[in-house]
């Protein structure tokens, strides 16, 4: 790789040595390289998973679906829980706040043979979720968390279950060590930590030291780290510095699905290749838009693709007026017309490699139900209003 495409912190990071990292096993599943695509709402649908999978192996998790909506047969939820025929490992993330509905949802998914891996979300920091006692607020109540995890594992049978969570609500209420131990004790086959608090949202640097601490506390199952994997070498640094067993990649692959190719390279001991020039990026964009149109229909796909088009063109010269035109594209033909006039030879801008894409926006004071912190031993499920389609962790 051209050194210009490596940030200073990664210029001297060597690729993996043969046998340096143990094989990551998620129950009966082998994940090689030890890379997991993070579930992201409105992003990690079948078309995006297909696109990313073309660049490298790993585990590609669906966007989050809600347990109660699945049990009640919500049409949109059923679509989001679908997989393409070529997805040989069907990995799905489920979110629920009530052990009863979580158990029913898992029994439905497993009974119909629809999944090979189940991940549970306990990290959503969205205000309208935490203010009702859901998402990242659930680990504050360890008995409730334990009951939900127990219901999922009990209903899953032979299907492996993992859980994903944040450090805690804020620096005063850190719950990640207890959440990890509960996952281990209740039969999860791995746990994942997004090394930020809910108050941080996606701001600042992830606390990789917390990943190391979780790895020391959870010893019988794999621990995966999530946060600030922008370049392939970041994954090596994270695993080497924390001892974690694998990495979860979220915003770093937005507009850059070839990051999974780079990750495959460095874990195989190879130097990663240069990112594509603008012509290569355009080709990826068009393939992504076509896959999305086949899955969702052209009109809905083009609306959904708007955010992706901004991520793909981030940092390129003249990108702002191009993005303005892309926002107006209503059909695939419109999209092709806009990109036809671009200078395909323009190299990928090095400064754009680590530019955050997706969710940003500073920090927050986490909203909780009135009196929530007064009864942390309570196992009562929160209101059904805490179970929304918002995803993030």
Explained architecture:
The protein folds into two domains: 23-274, TIM Barrel; 278-347, Non-ribosomal Peptide Synthetase Peptidyl Carrier Protein, Chain A (Orthogonal Bundle), CATH 1.10.1200. The protein is an alpha/beta fold and 393 residues long. The mean pLDDT is 94. The two termini are 32 Å apart. Helix 8 links the parallel strand 11 (190-194) and strand 12. The chain has helices spanning 46-53, 67-71, 75-80, 99-111, 127-130, 142-156, 176-185, 208-217, 232-242, 259-267, 278-296, 298-312, 319-326, 332-340; strands at 24-26, 29-31, 35-37, 59-60, 65-66, 91-95, 117-122, 161-166, 168-170, 173-174, 190-194, 223-226, 246-249. The strands form three sheets. It has a nine-stranded parallel sheet with strand order 4-3-13-12-11-8-7-6-5. The protein has a two-stranded antiparallel sheet with strand order 1-2. The protein is built from 14 helices and 13 strands. Helix 1 packs antiparallel against helix 11, helix 7 runs parallel beside helix 8 (208-217) and helix 11 runs antiparallel to helix 12.
């Amino acid at each position: 790789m051209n050194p210009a495409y490596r940030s200073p912190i990664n210029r001297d990071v060597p690729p993996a040595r043969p046998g340096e990292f143990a094989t990551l096993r998620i129950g009966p599943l082998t994940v090689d390289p030890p890379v997991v695509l993070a579930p992201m709402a409105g992003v990690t649908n079948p078309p995006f998973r297909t696109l990313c999978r073309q660049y490298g192996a790993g585990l590609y998790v669906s966007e989050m679906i809600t347990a109660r909506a699945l049990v009640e047969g919500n049409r949109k939820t059923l679509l989001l829980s679908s997989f393409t025929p070529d997805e040989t490992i069907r990995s799905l993330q489920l979110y629920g706040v009530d052990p009863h509905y979580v158990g029913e949802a898992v029994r439905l998914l497993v009974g119909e043979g629809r999944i090979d891996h189940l991940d549970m979300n306990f990290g959503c920091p969205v205000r309208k979720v935490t203010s009702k006692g859901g998402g990242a607020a659930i680990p504050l109540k360890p008995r409730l968390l334990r009951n939900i995890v127990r219901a999922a594992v009990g209903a899953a049978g032979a299907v492996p279950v993992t859980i994903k969570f944040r450090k805690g609500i804020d620096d005063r209420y850190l719950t990640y060590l207890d959440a990890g131990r509960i996952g281990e004790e209740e039969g999860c086959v791995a746990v994942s930590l997004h090394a930020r608090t809910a108050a941080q949202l996606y701001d600042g640097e992830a606390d990789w030291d917390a990943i190391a601490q979780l790895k020391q506390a959870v010893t019988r199952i794999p621990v995966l780290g999530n946060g600030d994997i922008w370049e392939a070498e970041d994954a090596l640094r994270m695993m080497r510095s924390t001892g974690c067993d694998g990495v979860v990649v979220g915003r770093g692959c937005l507009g850059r699905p070839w990051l999974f190719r780079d990750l495959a390279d460095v874990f195989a001991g190879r130097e990663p290749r240069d990112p594509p020039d603008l012509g290569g990026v355009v080709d990826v964009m068009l393939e992504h838009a076509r896959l999305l149109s086949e899955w969702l229909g052209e009109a809905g796909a083009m609306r959904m693709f708007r955010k992706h088009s901004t991520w793909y063109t981030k940092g390129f010269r003249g990108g702002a007026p191009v993005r303005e035109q892309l926002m107006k594209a209503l059909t695939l033909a419109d999209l092709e017309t806009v990109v036809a006039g671009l200078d395909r030879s323009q190299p990928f801008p090095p400064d754009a490699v680590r530019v955050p894409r997706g969710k940003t926006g500073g920090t927050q004071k986490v909203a909780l139900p009135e009196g929530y912190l007064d009864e942390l031993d309570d196992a009562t499920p929160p209101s059904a209003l805490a179970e929304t389609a918002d995803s993030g962790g």
